[in-house]
């Protein structure tokens, strides 16, 4: 399968996405389940205090994936004829991570 994204962008996504997805799921879980079961809480507070390395590296991966998203969208927009399904899946998953991390806490609760 031919990809419109160059190798360095695919490698960047492959390295940053696992921790970024884990942090995004944790943040959404804290925004929905924990906030609904109790009072309003500081989202990410328990994550940073219980698992500081995971929290810091995961947030850096999230921000890295957001920067990756800007480059990938511009690259696929200029080479859209050779874009594959995998390129679209990578971009959509990065968009979901960006939404999960950036969305305000009271929006989901």
Summarize the structure.
Helix content is 79%, strand content 0%.
Set down the secondary structure blueprint.
Layout: H1 7-37, H2 45-50, H3 52-78, H4 85-102, H5 105-108
Helix pairs in contact: 1-3, 1-4, 3-4
SS element count, helices: 5
Query: Quick one: overall form?
Result: elongated
Number of domains: 1
Distance between the termini: 41 Å
N-to-C SSE string, H for helix and E for strand: HHHHH
Structural write-up:
By secondary structure, the protein is mainly α. It has one domain. α1 runs parallel beside α4 and α3 crosses α4.
List keywords for this structure.
mainly alpha; 5 helices
